[in-house]
Amino acid sequence: MFDLAFKTHYYIMERFKKLLKISAYTVLSIFVAFVIYANWEEPSLSDRLNLKPIELSVFTLNHEVSTEDSLQIAQKFATNKGITASTINPKGKTISITYHADETSENELRQAIEAEKFEAKKVDFTAFKGPQCPVPTEYIDFIINTKKALCFR
């Protein structure tokens, strides 16, 4: 009886060890494949230079923008700290601004536009209907951040 119990226990432990070994090799293979994938393509210029991320804000204006108004707004944004670029579309009555979020905010941008006698309303891109990615952005961000962490270049 004891011999049968011992053999059964030994058989179960051997199967468990084999399963554990296969699982470890599988996980290790997936990790090595992901490290190879992370180092396969060249990192982007912003990653290589470790540049700060930028934000994009688009505002619609309440009336047409003249050339003089466009120049005044562009000059005001050129002196504003944290703004990396701005584009004014007179026909579409929009202003697109890229900026560093740690140096300026959307409210400061809106105030700068409204100081030039315009009413600025932020464009809500989530309101647009059309094709959308079925993968949540949190998953995509996780993959990208993990890829950056495992890149040894």
How would you explain this protein's 3D organization?
This protein has helices spanning 2-40, 45-48, 67-79, 106-114, 137-150; strands spanning 55-61, 83-89, 94-99, 120-122. With 153 residues, it is α+β, with helices and mostly antiparallel strands. The protein has two domains: 1-40; 55-126, 2-Layer Sandwich (Alpha-Beta Plaits), CATH 3.30.70.100. It has a four-stranded antiparallel sheet, with helices on one face. β2 (83-89) and β3 (94-99) form a beta hairpin. α1 packs across α5 (137-150). The longest helix is centred in the N-terminal third of the chain and has 39 residues, at 2-40. The protein is elongated. The termini are far apart. The mean pLDDT is 84.
Furnish the topology, listing elements before pairings.
Layout: H1 2-40, H2 45-48, E1 55-61, H3 67-79, E2 83-89, E3 94-99, H4 106-114, E4 120-122, H5 137-150
Helix pairs in contact: 1-5
Briefly summarize what is shown.
The chain is α+β, with helices and mostly antiparallel strands and 153 residues long. It contains five helices and four strands; from the N terminus they run H-H-E-H-E-E-H-E-H. It has a four-stranded antiparallel beta sheet, covered by helices on one side.
Q: How many separate helices?
A: 5
Query: In order across it, which strands form the biggest sheet?
Result: 2-3-1-4
Shape: elongated
The first-level CATH class of the largest domain is given as Alpha Beta
The radius of gyration over CA amounts to 28 Å
Query: What kind of assembly state do the chains in view correspond to?
Result: single chain
Give me the strand/helix succession.
HHEHEEHEH
Which stretches of 5+ consecutive residues score pLDDT under 50? Answer: none
